[in-house]
Write a structure and sequence with these properties.
77% of the residues lie in helices and 0% in strands. Helix 1 runs antiparallel to helix 2. It has 2 helices and no strands. By secondary structure, it is mainly alpha-helical.
C-alpha cells in the first residue's frame, strides 16, 4: 500500500474522518432546509384552510404534485448517497483501527 509522507499542514486521518462526517451533517442540514421550504410552498399552494386560495385547475394540481414527487425522488437519491458515504467512512475507520491494532501486536 502506498504511503503519503507527513507534511506540516496535512490533516491526520482522524481529522479527515471528522471532516467527512461534518460534511454529511452539513448536507443533511441543507436537505432539512430544502424540505422545510418545500413544505411551506405546499402549504401556500393548498392554503391554510385547505381551500386552494389561487384557484388552481385540476391540471395545475397534477403538475404541482408531479413537481413535488420529483423533488422528493431527488432527495431520496441524495439521502441514499449520503448513507453510502457514511458507510464508506465507517468501513475505512474500522480498517484503519484494525490496521493500528495489528501494528501494535
Amino acid at each position: 500500500m502506498p504511503t503519503i509522507p507527513p507534511e506540516n499542514n496535512r490533516p491526520s486521518l482522524d481529522e479527515v474522518f471528522i471532516d467527512l462526517l461534518k460534511s454529511i451533517a452539513l448536507e443533511e442540514t441543507a436537505i432539512s432546509h430544502l424540505l422545510n421550504a418545500e413544505a411551506e410552498k405546499m402549504q401556500a399552494f393548498v392554503g391554510k384552510e385547505l381551500d386552494f386560495p389561487t384557484c388552481p385547475s385540476n391540471e395545475d394540481i397534477i403538475n404541482f404534485n408531479e413537481t413535488v414527487s420529483q423533488f422528493v425522488d431527488v432527495l431520496v437519491m441524495k439521502e441514499w448517497l449520503l448513507l453510502r458515504k457514511l458507510e464508506n467512512i465507517l468501513r475505512a475507520a474500522r480498517k484503519q483501527t484494525h490496521h493500528f491494532e495489528c501494528e501494535e501486536e
